[in-house]
Every structure is written in structure tokens, then in C-alpha cells.
């Protein structure tokens, strides 16, 4: 959770700008991986900003749950997953989906309810799935994905595959019975599952401090004899390092980990949120810890990636999302005659 | 002509199995033929299942395919969804069907909807086996017939076999099916015997069968009510009332054609089910007839027999009074035939 330590003393004037020593979590990521991570974080941010604007302008209906401010958690945790690894996501799942490799254009088309969307307009923001990238779907039910992850883990084991399943959930889900049943079963059967809790401090309006008797969700891991780890969820290298350890542990047959990323959603729970349960000061304090800016500042200070290139990565993401918006707007609506086509298989 | 005639009576010379044995044989043959199939649930392994259905399957197929689980119905239903989504063919036993109330979220919100929500990209080929029904003195939380709840959910299939033959054939069909299937077994039927072919065979999902041909009244039943209706039909025959008995077998999809075809012939309809009558399957069948041209063939009001508006009681006299019995079917059918004129 620390910021990089600074070196040098005030009395010794540097002849040139000193590069502070690089912390291990950052050093573990090569430049190409960092560029990928930054690109994904910007794509998520731009995607959600466009989604929000589209809603404000009345271009889309329904509701949305934005993860703005939580991008390091989504991107860092999935950075070391293989393409054939599985994820299960949440109602606040745009970030997970993009991080696992989905096409933002088809996601935005789904948001617009279009036939070209990932779910042909049947699912919407809360139910996006992209089986080709191992994304087994977002979920509109709090803790809905956790038991499913147990079954995916059983399936991986039964088929003697080396895959891993990472299931995302929020702090609110940790108080559902499904959480406890799932952690227990995953542990007794040593399933290759990573339970990835994005603790953004509030279950809608309920402060986790009032909803849970322990300070960290990961404290509950001990009850299931599994590894429990809490990290600063706004610190991409820290999240990536912790997730990598959990993924490797699962892949090597060590069983599940409960990994908690402490983060914050800068937007409301959904469009109805009037922020009655938190202060402007609190939101502003977390804005100062914006995970994208934080990583960029660190990379710049480390001379790992220079400011010009950082700006170019952001601009490229902006352009991709603008193109995605055009695709979504110009795509056709589903045909009502096909309403019940996919209720049943076969 | 809709609805094959398949009598319940046992054919001489054919191998007899109990309903429980027939289900076990289906599970064994499915596991034998397909490495993706596995059975899991509470006490299905060493114990052999609370009703002895899984029996020796653990010893035959090992602990990786016959899995004893913690008491976690919600988690187990979700595990079935996850396994089904990623290439397996799970069969989950819910020890008493009443306990499925703990698993509703995963069955109703996840299993039933995933294919649709994902735009047709995924399928969830899972089977949930549910021992249900009253008559064992197990009282209100271990005796319910909740099948209508699931028949109300698009995306699910709901089966209720009445004979050992259908229990095996429908279970094998359910395991093959690419959709989530709720397979309701009746606890009182587990020991009933009937002819069961040794080979693996499938009965079609969504097809009713005619258990007895008749011209005066159509009696539609499912599960144990089919047997009571068939016994009632024999008593009615002694009074010169010729009842046709239809065994639904599948509630969703429902074989409306077979019912309508029969009603056009007999002009009278009695629906019998164990689940609570109010808002039940009988109401749906009655409404479907009322909305169809078969309505014009009716010469008597449609009648329904179903569970009383009461939890299942413990006392055996009250327990019997709570659900339709053979005599209720006889008297109701008699009334419809005597009062309704052609």
C-alpha cells in the first residue's frame, strides 16, 4: 500500500533527476505488459464514460453499474490469466470483460440492446458474456457467480485441464450464504478457483464496516482453510502480483485463494444513486488515488514509459471507444419475431 | 393420433425393476456411456442416497463421479450450473425436493436464463433429481409437490415420471438434453415395480402417454396421480363409466395436443395432481382447453383435484385428506359423467 520510497537527501542537490528505486511488484512487469495494462484500464474508463454519457443523452435505457475508479482491480487481477482461463463477473463487470479481452464495440452494442451485441441485445449491461475469451458471464445477482465458479472448478478438475477460474464479487456478496457455501466447497475439493473480492466499501449504500464484523473480507479465508490476501486494489502492480500468486497456486493444484482488492467506485451504485451515504470529501480523497493516474505517475517517475507515450495510449483508447460507439449506434435492433428463439437449446 | 397408448400393467416375461432401481440403472448407463456425466448431492455416496436410489454407484464409479457433498443446496445447484456450462453433464440429487427452496436462486435466475441472457451462446445441460410428494409421514417440510413453481419458469424443463419404465427412459433423455431439467421423483413410487428394458433407451420429453383408452371422460394425471387415476378408472368401469387416463410425464413442455384430442372425444375433463390446486397445473390445463376449440366439445364443467390449501400435515388421516386419493377421483369423475349430458 506504500507509495514508492524516495531516496536522496535534501542537502545533496542532484546533478540530474534521480530515479527512485523500483518496487518489486512494478519490476515484475515488463514494459509490454504495462502498456497492455494501461491500454485496458483506459479502454475501461473510456468505455464507461461513453456508456454514462449515452445514458444521460437518452441513447440507452435500463440501468448501468459503473466501475470507474476500480480499473486496477479488474486489469491487475486478470493480467496473468491465460486466454483459456475462465472468469465469472458481476453486475459491475464492464472492466472484467474488457480486461479479459472482449471487444468494446460488441459490448457497447449490447449496452444499446443491438443484435450485434455479445448477447444479441437480450442480456444488456448486467449479463455480458464472451465465451471465446473465457468470460462465462456477468451476473445480476449478488454472489450469483460464486457457486457457479465451484462447478467450473469441478469441471476443470474432472477434465484434467490446467485452467483456472477467477470469480469476481463485491464486498456485499461476502455476506450472502452463497459466498460461504462456495468457499467451503472449493476448499474441501481443492478447486482451481480464485475468489476475487472487489471491496469498494459499500454494498449499494451499506458501509461494509456496518455489514461485517471483521475488518477485511479476506479475514474470512481462515474459516475455510484457504489463503486470504488483502491488497490495495487501486495499485495495479500490487494487484497483479497478488493475483499472479493466487493463479499459480490454483493452477498447481494448491486450491483456492480469497484475494481482496480494496478499492472504491467513484460513481454511484447505479443511476438512482444520490450519494446520501458518503461525503464529497471521501469521494475526493479516493479520486486522488485514481488507479490510472497513479500508475502513469509512477511509470513516468521511473522513466519506464514516458509522458508522450502515456498520452498516446490514452488517445488510442479514446479512438477505439469512439469507433465502438459508432458501431453500436449503427447496428440493427433485434427482430421481435425471434423473441423466444434462445429460451431453450436444441 | 396424439398420445401413444402405454398401459401401466406389467407385461409377462419382461424384467421387473423398481422405480428406484430403474433410476439407478439410468444413472449407471449414463455414466458408463459418457465420461462427462457425474452424480453429486448429499449422502449419495457411502449412504447410497437418502432413499437408496444411488445405492452402490459410488463403489462402481468411484468418488470422482459419485460425489458426497456438504449440505449446501444453493452452492450445489450453482456448481451444477458451472459444471454444465463448461462441458460436464451434472446430475444433482436434492435430498428432499422441499430443500430446493434453498437453491431457487441458481435454478431460476441462473440455470434457466443463462442461455437466453447470453444470446443463445451457452447451454446448461444439467439434471436436478427431486424426491417429492406426501404419504410418508414426513410432515410439512419434507412432503411438498413444488413442480408447478418450476413449470412457471421459461428455460427449465420439468418431468414427473409415474412408472419405472418412464423413470429410466426420461432420466436418460434428461441427461442427454442440452437444457436444465427438473426431474421430480415420487417417494411413494420408489418401491413400485414394473417392466424395464435392460438396454439404454430414451422416452421423449414433452410427450404424454395414454394409460387407458376410454370414451366417457378424460382424466389427466402425473406422477403418482396417474396410478390413482388408473385404479379409479377400473372402479369406474365397473359402473359402466369408460375413463381415458392420460399420464402427463412432462409438465414443461406440456403435451397439450394429447389432452385436447382426448377431450374432443370424451367431452369431459378431470385433472388430478398432488401439488396445491390453487394456481396449479390443473388451472393451466383447464385454461388451455377453455382457450381451444376443444372447449366446444365439453358437455360438463372441467374439474380439478389437487392438494388442499394447507401445508402437508403429520397425522396420517389428515395427510391423506390433504391430497387427492383414488376415491376422490372416482366420485368426481362419476359426478361429471352423471351430471354432464352428451
TL;DR of this structure?
Chain A has 346 residues and is of the alpha/beta class. Chain A is built from twelve helices and seven strands.
Note down, in words, how this protein is organized.
The complex is a heterodimer of chains A (346) and B (342). Chain A has 346 residues and is α/β, with parallel strands linked by helices. Helix content of chain A is 41%, strand content 9%. Chain A has a single domain, classed as Rossmann fold (3-Layer(aba) Sandwich), CATH 3.40.50. In chain A, strand 4 and strand 5 (206-207) form a beta hairpin. The longest helix of chain A is centred in the first third of the chain and has 26 residues, at 31-56. Chain A is globular, with a radius of gyration of 20 Å. Chain B is globular. Chain B has twelve helices and 15 strands. The chains are: A alpha/beta (346), B alpha/beta (342). The A-B interface holds A 86, 88, 117-123, 127, 129, 131, 136-137, 139-141, 144, 146-156, 158-159, 165, 177-178, 181-182, 184-185, 188, 340-346 and B 38, 64, 69-70, 72, 74-88, 90, 105-106, 109-110, 114-123, 125, 154-155, 157, 177-179.
User: Would you list the SSEs of chain B in sequence order as H and E?
Assistant: EEHEHEHEHHEHEHEEEEHEEHEHEHH
Fourth CATH level, the homologous superfamily of chain A: Thiamin diphosphate (ThDP)-binding fold, Pyr/PP domains
Q: Label the CATH architecture of the largest domain in chain B.
A: 3-Layer(aba) Sandwich
- The quaternary organization reads as heterodimer
Shape descriptor of chain A reads globular
Report the top-level CATH class of chain A: Alpha Beta
Query: Helix coverage percent of residues of chain A?
Result: 40-55%
Look up the CATH topology of chain A.
Answer: Rossmann fold
H-E string of chain A: HHHEHHHEHEEEHEHEHHH
Dominant shape of chain B: globular
How many separate domains make up the residues of chain B?
A: 2
Structure class of chain A = alpha/beta
CATH topology of the largest domain in chain B: Rossmann fold
Mean pLDDT of chain B: 96
State the low-pLDDT regions of chain B, or none: none
Number of separate domains of chain A: 1
> Strand arrangement, largest sheet of chain A?
1-2-3-7-6
Using DSSP, what is the number of strands of chain B? Answer: 15
Amino acid at each position: 500500500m506504500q507509495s514508492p520510497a524516495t531516496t536522496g537527501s535534501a542537502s545533496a542537490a542532484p546533478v540530474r533527476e534521480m530515479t527512485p528505486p523500483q518496487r518489486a511488484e512494478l519490476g515484475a512487469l515488463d514494459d509490454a505488459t504495462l502498456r497492455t495494462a494501461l491500454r485496458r484500464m483506459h479502454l475501461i474508463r473510456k468505455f464507461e464514460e461513453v456508456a454514462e454519457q449515452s445514458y444521460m443523452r437518452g441513447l440507452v435505457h435500463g440501468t448501468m453499474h459503473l466501475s470507474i475508479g476500480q480499473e486496477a482491480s479488474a486489469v491487475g487481477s486478470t493480467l496473468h490469466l491465460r486466454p483459456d482461463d475462465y472468469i465469472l463477473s458481476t453486475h459491475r463487470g464492464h472492466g472484467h470483460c474488457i480486461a479479459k479481452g472482449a471487444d468494446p464495440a460488441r459490448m457497447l452494442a449490447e449496452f444499446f440492446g443491438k443484435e450485434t451485441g455479445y448477447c444479441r441485445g437480450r442480456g444488456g449491461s448486467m449479463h455480458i458474456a464472451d465465451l471465446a475469451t473465457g468470460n462465462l458471464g456477468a451476473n445480476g445477482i449478488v454472489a450469483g457467480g460464486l457457486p457457479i465458479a465451484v462447478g467450473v472448478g469441478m469441471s476443470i478438475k474432472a477434465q484434467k485441464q490446467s485452467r483456472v477460474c477467477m470469480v469476481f464479487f463485491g464486498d456485499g456478496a461476502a455476506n450472502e450464504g452463497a459466498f460461504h457455501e462456495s468457499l467451503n466447497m472449493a476448499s474441501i475439493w481443492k478447486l482451481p478457483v480464485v475468489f476475487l473480492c472487489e471491496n469498494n466499501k459499500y454494498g449499494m449504500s451499506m458501509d461494509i464496516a456496518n455489514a461485517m464484523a471483521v475488518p477485511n473480507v479476506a479475514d474470512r479465508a481462515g474459516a475455510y482453510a484457504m489463503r486470504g490476501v488483502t491488497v490495495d486494489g487501486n495499485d495495479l502492480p500490487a494487484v497483479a502480483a497478488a493475483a499472479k500468486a493466487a493463479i499459480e497456486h490454483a493452477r498447481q493444484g494448491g486450491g483456492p485463494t480469497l484475494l481482496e482488492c480494496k478499492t472504491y467506485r467513484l460513481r454511484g451504485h447505479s443511476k438512482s444513486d444520490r450519494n446520501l451515504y458518503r461525503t464529497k470529501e471521501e469521494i475526493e480523497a479516493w479520486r486522488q488515488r485514481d488507479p490510472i493516474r497513479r500508475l502513469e505517475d509512477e511509470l513516468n517517475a521511473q522513466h519506464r514509459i514516458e509522458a508522450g507515450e502515456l498520452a498516446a495510449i490514452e488517445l488510442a483508447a479514446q479512438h477505439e471507444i469512439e469507433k465502438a460507439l459508432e458501431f453500436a449506434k449503427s447496428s440493427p435492433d433485434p427482430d421481435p419475431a425471434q423473441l423466444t428463439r434462445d429460451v431453450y437449446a436444441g | 393420433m396424439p398420445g401413444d397408448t402405454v398401459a401401466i400393467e406389467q407385461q409377462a416375461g419382461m424384467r421387473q425393476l423398481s422405480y428406484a432401481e430403474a433410476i439407478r440403472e439410468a444413472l449407471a448407463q449414463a455414466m458408463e456411456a459418457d465420461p462427462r456425466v457425474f452424480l453429486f448431492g448429499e449422502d449419495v455416496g457411502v449412504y447410497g442416497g437418502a432413499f437408496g436410489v444411488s445405492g452402490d454407484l459410488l463403489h462402481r464409479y468411484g468418488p470422482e463421479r459419485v460425489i458426497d457433498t456438504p449440505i449446501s443446496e444453493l452452492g450445489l445447484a450453482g456448481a451444477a450450473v458451472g459444471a454444465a456450462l463448461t462441458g460436464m453433464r451434472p446430475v444433482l440429487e436434492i435430498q428432499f425436493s422441499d430443500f430446493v427452496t434453498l437453491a431457487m436462486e441458481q435454478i431460476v435466475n441462473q440455470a434457466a436464463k443463462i442461455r437466453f441472457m447470453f444470446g443463445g451462446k451457452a447451454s446448461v445441460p444439467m439434471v436436478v433429481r427431486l424426491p417429492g410428494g406426501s404419504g410418508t409421514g414426513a410432515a410439512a417440510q419434507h412432503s411438498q409437490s413444488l413442480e408447478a413453481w418450476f413449470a412457471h419458469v421459461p428455460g427449465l424443463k420439468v418431468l414427473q415420471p409415474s412408472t419405472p419404465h418412464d423413470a429410466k427412459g426420461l432420466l436418460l433423455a434428461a441427461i442427454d438434453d442440452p437444457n436444465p431439467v427438473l426431474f421430480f421423483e415420487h417417494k411413494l413410487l420408489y418401491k413400485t415395480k414394473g417392466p424395464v428394458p435392460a438396454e439404454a433407451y430414451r422416452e421423449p420429453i414433452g410427450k404424454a402417454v395414454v394409460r387407458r383408452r376410454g370414451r366417457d371422460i378424460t382424466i389427466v394425471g402425473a406422477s403418482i396421480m396417474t396410478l390413482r387415476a388408473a385404479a379409479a378408472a377400473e372402479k369406474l368401469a365397473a359402473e359402466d363409466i369408460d375413463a381415458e387416463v392420460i399420464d402427463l410425464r412432462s409438465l414443461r413442455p406440456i403435451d397439450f395436443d394429447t389432452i385436447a384430442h382426448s377431450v374432443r372425444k370424451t367431452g369431459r375433463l378431470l385433472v388430478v395432481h398432488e401439488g396445491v390446486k390453487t394456481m396449479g397445473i390443473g388451472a393451466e390445463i383447464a385454461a388451455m382447453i377453455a382457450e381451444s376449440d376443444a372447449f366446444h366439445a365439453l358437455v360438463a364443467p372441467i374439474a380439478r383435484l389437487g392438494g388442499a390449501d394447507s401445508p402437508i400435515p403429520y397425522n396420517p388421516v389428515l395427510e391423506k385428506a390433504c391430497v387427492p386419493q383414488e376415491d376422490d377421483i372416482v366420485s368426481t369423475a362419476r359426478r361429471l359423467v352423471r351430471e354432464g349430458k352428451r
